[in-house]
Structure formats: structure tokens, C-alpha cells
């Protein structure tokens, strides 16, 4: 298929672009490089340097058959401090993109939604029927786009899939997580083992979990990427599907720390700190619908996710 990938210079977008190219698709990446890296765009993909807000001239007459839309602001704590960035980029930007798709008659979109749409859910595991009630502007902005896409499916016959990612980790060879500043748990823990800092920080030890630290569902990025290829195949005109993507297994921050210690052989000292604003206690996916609708199942466990993230970090350090 002839595909447009927004955000293909970022972590998840670059991994999925590499998987799409390996599967034989013709891929063009559109990215403003605000947080992504030009060198992260896989060889073999065309590149357009533009914001999604300005995507219209790049879509018209190009014959794209589908858009995979990764470009977004995606940090919970940033969205608490600066919500305007989230409404402007994630909602206004996506509205411009979806309107450009309509003008260009592009029939299909796969959208990166998030578990943050559910807020502080009572249910665990979280199903797609769990009520949405985001507790930060990041989750609210992604939920707004889910609603936007649903309305376009009903009114304009768009085929849309909102994939609600839980926590994503790991790498695919040279494609991995390279944020600056880095806020995510696994790379922060591994950066201590790599000697970039002296100790990691555990945000919150008073959560109602087995060891007091927050519980998350860490999915390997290549398992996540496979679901996008399957979602493209399963897309149906006029239908908006919302599908959770997670392993179905929850790990506390301390359990992830233990996995990082095992993989790296490093002690990784930890400082205990107060909770981070906007962080829910527990986010664990039910992936029953993904199994049924996409024929998808996660294949890689937490240890592999950590090992591949560690391999990627060592590649980055070796290249410096
Ligand atoms: N944490 C620490 N120390 C750190 C970093 C994180 O203790 O140095 C804790 C956080 O407080 C949280 C957990 O580890 O409890 C996971 O934090 P991450 O920053 O790795 O990920 P988040 O759960 O905040 O968010 C991620 C994505 C979001 C997505 C969410 C859904 O960044 O886009 O998962 O589960 F919405």
C-alpha cells in the first residue's frame, strides 16, 4: 500500500515505518522534527519535513491509501503543566490532518490513542467498555480525537482504528527510544546502568499496589507495530474501531527496576520521591478485543522489552 506515516521520525513511528517497509509497503514519513530525529527515519522511506497542521498540500494528488498517525505530544506531566501544547498539536493538528485526508480522498487512518483516555479506571484489566475519564490534558486530547474520528466514520465513511497503547518499551535494532529530556521509566532506569546518572527516581511509593509503586502494562514496540499492520488489513469503510494494545500483565515500578537490574547486571540505585502529577495507580490492558478483531497476540515478555531497550541504548552510546 502507499502509506503516509506522521511522526515517523519519532520512537514508535520509526519502528513501525521499518516494519511497514519490511512488509513491502511504500512509505512516506511526514514529521516536523520537533521531538523526532531525521536520522531515525528508516532508509527506503520518503521524507516530508512539515507539521501535520500544514499537511494538506503534501496529501493532495499523492495517491496515499492510508495514514498512520503517530505525530503528537505525548508526555503526561508536560500536559499537566502546559495543556495548550496538547490542544494545539494533538487536537487542532489532527483536525487539519483529517480534513486534508478528506480533501485528498484518503479512506483509512490508524490513530495512536492511549490508555490515558481511561484516567483512573476502577476496572482492571481495562476493556474498551471501561468508561473514559482522562485525568490529564494528554489523555483528554487523545480522547477528543477518538471522538473526532468516530464522527468522520459515521458522516463521511472514513475507516478509522484508534489503537489505545498502554506503556510501550523496547526497540527494533537501530530504531528505539531517544527522547530529550527522557521521562519514561525503562530508559531512565537503564541510563543509570549506562553510567549517565548516579541513581534513578521512583515516583510514588504510597500507591495501593503490592509494593506501593504504580502498576503499568509494558508492551514491546515490535508487538505494538505488528498490530498496526493487522489494523490496516482489518479497516472497514464507515467503521471506527477502538482497540486496546497491551500484554494484559501489570508490573510495578519496583518490578521493572528488578528486571533492569537482572538484564544489565548493574545495581541501579533508586531514590524514592513523591508521586508525579497526573499518574494513575494502575493501567493494565485487556487485549481480548485485539486478539478477536486483529488476530493479534503479544509475543515478547518484559525481560525482552528491557533487553532490547538496553541493546539500543548501548548502540547509541557506542555511536557517540
Ligand atoms: N516512573 C518512575 N521513575 C521514572 C519514570 C517513571 O517512577 O524515572 C514511574 C511513573 O511515575 C509511572 C511509571 O513509572 O508510574 C511509568 O511512567 P512512564 O513515564 O514510563 O509512562 P507513563 O505511564 O507516564 O505514560 C506512558 C506513555 C503515555 C501513555 C501511558 C499509558 O508515555 O503516552 O504510558 O499507559 F498514555
Automatic annotation (TrEMBL):
Per the UniProt record, the source organism is Brevibacterium jeotgali
EC class of the enzyme, as a word: isomerase
Q: Which SUPFAM superfamilies match?
A: NAD(P)-binding Rossmann-fold domains
Pfam families cross-referenced by the UniProt entry: Epimerase (PF01370)
Q: Where is the NAD-dependent epimerase/dehydratase domain?
A: 4-246
Co-factor requirement: NAD(+)
Identify the EC number(s). 5.1.3.2
Q: Does the keyword DNA damage apply?
A: no
The record's InterPro entries line, in alphabetical order, gives: Epimerase_deHydtase, NAD(P)-bd_dom_sf, Sc_DH/Rdtase_CS, UDP_G4E
Which keywords does this Swiss-Prot/TrEMBL entry list?
Carbohydrate metabolism, Isomerase, NAD
Q: So, what pathway does this thing act in?
A: Carbohydrate metabolism; galactose metabolism
Molecular-function GO terms, alphabetical: UDP-glucose 4-epimerase activity
Query: What family is this protein classified in?
Result: Belongs to the NAD(P)-dependent epimerase/dehydratase family.
| PANTHER family registered for this protein in UniProt | UDP-ARABINOSE 4-EPIMERASE 1 (PTHR43725:SF53), UDP-GLUCOSE 4-EPIMERASE (PTHR43725)
User: What are the recorded Gene Ontology BP terms?
Assistant: galactose catabolic process via UDP-galactose, Leloir pathway
This chain belongs to which protein, by name? UDP-glucose 4-epimerase
**Catalysed conversion reaction:** UDP-alpha-D-glucose = UDP-alpha-D-galactose
Amino acid at each position: 500500500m502507499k502509506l503516509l506515516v506522521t511522526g515517523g521520525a519519532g520512537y514508535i513511528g520509526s519502528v513501525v515505518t521499518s516494519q511497514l517497509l519490511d512488509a513491502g509497503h511504500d512509505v512516506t514519513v511526514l514529521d516536523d522534527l520537533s521531538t523526532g530525529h531525521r536520522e531515525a527515519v528508516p532508509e527506503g522511506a520518503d521524507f516530508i519535513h512539515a507539521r501535520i497542521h500544514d499537511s494538506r498540500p503534501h496529501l493532495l494528488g499523492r495517491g496515499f491509501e492510508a495514514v498512520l498517525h503517530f505525530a503528537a505530544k505525548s508526555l503526561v506531566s508536560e500536559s499537566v503543566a502546559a495543556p495548550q501544547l496538547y490542544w494545539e498539536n494533538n487536537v487542532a493538528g489532527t483536525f487539519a490532518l483529517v480534513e486534508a485526508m478528506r480533501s485528498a480522498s484518503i479512506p483509512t487512518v490508524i490513530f495512536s490513542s492511549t490508555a490515558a483516555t481511561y484516567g483512573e479506571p476502577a476496572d482492571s484489566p481495562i476493556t474498551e467498555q471501561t468508561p473514559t475519564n482522562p485525568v490529564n490534558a494528554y489523555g483528554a486530547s487523545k480522547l477528543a480525537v477518538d471522538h473526532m474520528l468516530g464522527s468522520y466514520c459515521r458522516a463521511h465513511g472514513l475507516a478509522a482504528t484508534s489503537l489505545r497503547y498502554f506503556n510501550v518499551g523496547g526497540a527494533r535494532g537501530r530504531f528505539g527510544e531517544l527522547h530529550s529530556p527522557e521521562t519514561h521509566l525503562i530508559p531512565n532506569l537503564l541510563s543509570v546502568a549506562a553510567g549517565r546518572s548516579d541513581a534513578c527516581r521512583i515516583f510514588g511509593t504510597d500507591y495501593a499496589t503490592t509494593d506501593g509503586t504504580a502498576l503499568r502494562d509494558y508492551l514491546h514496540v515490535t508487538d505494538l507495530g505488528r498490530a498496526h499492520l493487522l489494523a490496516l488489513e482489518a479497516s472497514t469503510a464507515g467503521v471506527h474501531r477502538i482497540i486496546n494494545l497491551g500484554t494484559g500483565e501489570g508490573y510495578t515500578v519496583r518490578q521493572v527496576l528488578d528486571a533492569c537490574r537482572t538484564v544489565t547486571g548493574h545495581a541501579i540505585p533508586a531514590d524514592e520521591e513523591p508521586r508525579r502529577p497526573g499518574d494513575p495507580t494502575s493501567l493494565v490492558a485487556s487485549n481480548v478485543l485485539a486478539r478477536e478483531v486483529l488476530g493479534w497476540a503479544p509475543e515478547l515478555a518484559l525481560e525482552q522489552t528491557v533487553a532490547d531497550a538496553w541493546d539500543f541504548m548501548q548502540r547509541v552510546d557506542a555511536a557517540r
